[in-house]
Specification:
By secondary structure, the protein is mainly α. It is about 60% helix and about 0% strand. A two-stranded antiparallel sheet has the order 1-2.
Length: about 240
């Protein structure tokens, strides 16, 4: 009986020791951790008045140039033979038969719509940044052409370039800090490529690749035209 009691007492001690032994915490499986929720941006309560105001200023400027171009009238400060007039009358002053200023007006109009109507922060910023990047790229192209090729400056072109530059800077500064699943580097690279394709395509147009009539003027034809003008030549013809 003594041996049985000793065995029973030993087994009871083992059970107590097992109960008192601290249970080791199981390592948490990283895969089972709950994923962090993506931040949800609140809808904009008010329009982007700064963007809307700048876009409105650009619309007024380019609308004035487009209207004067259609009416074949010289804008203020663009007297005949002035630097502004030379730029406006160059082949870069129109695109597919419409004043280049109309393209600027449409660009500013899109930016104005984005600034006033689109309230989703992500869509608002991405749209405004893309459009302003394209507008700025085209403005830089025209400024370089006027200074290097035409060798004349247009005060209206410089004013439009300034407005577009400010818009691009404002939009860049207004980028939301947390956009869900957004890679700025990749997005910026794609936007730069789109801008380069658009501006490059327009440059090919002005170079006469797509339309020879839109390209550089033939020196022989220009000289012939000037000669006929000086001689006051008159063309006579008949139709049967």
């Amino acid at each position: 009986m003594g041996k049985k009691k000793k065995r029973k007492a030993a087994s009871q001690k083992k059970q107590v020791a097992a109960k008192e032994k601290p249970v080791q915490e199981q390592p948490v499986d990283q895969k089972k951790k709950k994923k962090k929720k993506q931040p949800v941006l609140k809808m904009m309560e008010k329009p982007n008045w700064l963007l809307t105001g700048l876009a409105a200023a650009g619309m007024i400027l380019t609308a004035y140039l487009a209207v004067t171009g259609w009416l074949d009238k010289a804008p203020v400060l663009c007297d005949d033979g002035s630097s502004c007039d030379i730029v406006q009358q160059s082949r870069w002053g129109t695109f597919l038969g419409i004043p280049t200023a109309l393209l600027g007006f449409l660009t500013y109009a899109v930016l104005g719509y984005v600034g006033f109507r689109i309230r989703n922060p992500g869509t608002h910023w991405k749209s405004a940044w893309t459009v302003s990047m394209i507008g700025l790229g085209y403005s830089i192209y025209l400024i370089v052409i006027s200074m290097v090729v035409i060798q004349a400056a247009c005060v209206y072109c410089i004013a439009s370039f300034t407005i577009m530059t400010i818009i691009f800077g404002v939009i860049t500064f207004q980028r939301p800090k947390e956009l869900p699943k957004f890679n700025f580097t990749s997005f910026a690279g794609q936007t730069v490529i789109i801008t380069a394709v658009i501006v490059g395509g327009m440059h090919l147009h002005y170079s006469g690749v797509f339309d020879p009539m839109a390209g550089p003027e033939d020196p022989f034809l220009r000289g012939l035209a000037d000669h006929l003008t000086l001689d006051q030549a008159i063309m006579y013809g008949a139709y049967w």
